[in-house]
Amino acid sequence: MVASGQERILDNPKFQELVRTRSGFAWTLAAVMLAIYLCFIFLVAFAQPLMAMKVGGGVTSLGIVLGLVVIVSAFLLTGIYVQRANSRFDALTRDLQKDIA
């Protein structure tokens, strides 16, 4: 009985759409974060004079500022995912629940 319920859910087109949409969006955000991180690492490895450049006449270097940008971008991408999950993915989940109930 449990297996037939699982099969009914797995075969449901709304469930497949939910999985496809959520996975695609998550992989896209993961690729964006990886690209941001790799760009930062390559700058650290191959552009030391650029990263050591002082910003604003103080002691802060461009590397520190860009490191903070990497951290902030992770929070922003997480916020984007949460917003999408709370709107689009929750709506798809509600439609699925109505369909299988």
TrEMBL record:
Pfam families: DUF485. It comes from the Bacteria. The keyword Secreted does not apply. Keywords: Membrane, Transmembrane, Transmembrane helix. This is DUF485 domain-containing protein. Signal peptide: none annotated. The keyword Oxidoreductase does not apply. The chain crosses the membrane at residues 24-47, 59-82. PANTHER family: INNER MEMBRANE PROTEIN YJCH.
